[in-house]
Amino acid sequence: MNRNAYTPITADPVLLRLNSCRDWGTLHQRIRKAFGFPDYYGENWDAMWDCLTDVFLQPVQRHIVVEGFDAMPQGLRAYAAPMQEIFSDLQEKYPWVSVTYR
């Protein structure tokens, strides 16, 4: 397996489970796994944007479900606020992508 390659996403919707996240490291590990990011994913918001724009470049209808954002500790939710902006920007740039929070 090439650890520098993206893992193809076959799930639809793409489910990002954040329910039991308690720290930023776990948060970024879940992001990496949900979206099939390569091992070189930099675990920061700029890297997330760069990788997402690679993943969703093709105009294929996709839905992302973010589950448990509000269940994370307040400090982690504050840290993850840019993630919500990234998902909003992603939907704007790629209209074939939709994001729901539950």
From TrEMBL:
Residues 14-94 form the Barstar (barnase inhibitor) domain. Transmembrane segments: none annotated. InterPro entries: Barstar, Barstar-like_sf. It comes from the Bacteria. It holds the Pfam family Barstar. Belongs to the barstar family. This is Barstar (barnase inhibitor) domain-containing protein. The lineage of its organism: Bacteria, Bacillati, Bacillota, Clostridia, Eubacteriales.
